[in-house]
Design goal:
Layout: E1 5-10, H1 15-26, E2 30-37, E3 48-52, H2 64-68, E4 72-75, H3 81-84, H4 87-107, E5 112-116, H5 128-141, E6 147-152, E7 156-157, H6 165-176, E8 191-192, H7 193-206, E9 210-215, H8 216-223
Parallel strand pairs: 1-2, 1-4, 2-3, 4-5, 5-6, 6-9, 7-8
Protein name: Oxidoreductase
Pfam family, one: HIM1
Length: about 220
Amino acid sequence: MRVALHAVVAGASGLVGHELVKLLLDNKQYEQVTVLVRRRLNLTHPKLVQRETDFDRLEQLDGQRELLAGAVVYCTLGTTIKKAGSQEAFAKVDYEYPLALGRLAHQHGAANFLIVTAMGANPKSKVFYNRVKGKVERDLKALGLPSLYIFRPSLLLGKRSEFRLGERIGAAIAAGLPFLWIGGLKKFKPIEAGVVALAMQQAADQGPGGEQVYESSAISQLASK
């Protein structure tokens, strides 16, 4: 008999986070899904608990031990420099908040910590975006979490509230020119947010534990199992 699980999701209003929450609520293995949000989601479910959270003061989160002990923690926080308004604001969402959540997860004995970063994540990258993603990976690894799963998707596809030209172009290319995504180019194929969410759930449910990094093509393979 499997033990009932408790999921904690940060970034539930985002593209991957939204899909992930739906999956977790439908998964009988989870008895409770707690989302950490700035503003309440327009969603109700008997298993859903919404915690309005000030991510700038995450270390002061009420009841953090009870919330995180033994929990499966999913971090899908992320923004763009354009939306954030500056590199500093971007780094706060994509580096500081996930790392703070990782520290709390480690401190209070979370069972798993799963995070979405990006293809090309590298702390030494000359590209600011990739460098920030690489730094958060590096520093989460240094925490010594018992189970850390890192997902590096290619261009994410899905329905967003805001228009992103690059994603529209990527979706059109992916649909119109499927023969492009073979051999060494396979890893660059745009990927649906729902596929990433499913892979995250699969990893939490069946993953080998320890530290695992899933590139975009591996994410698709994991989701198909």
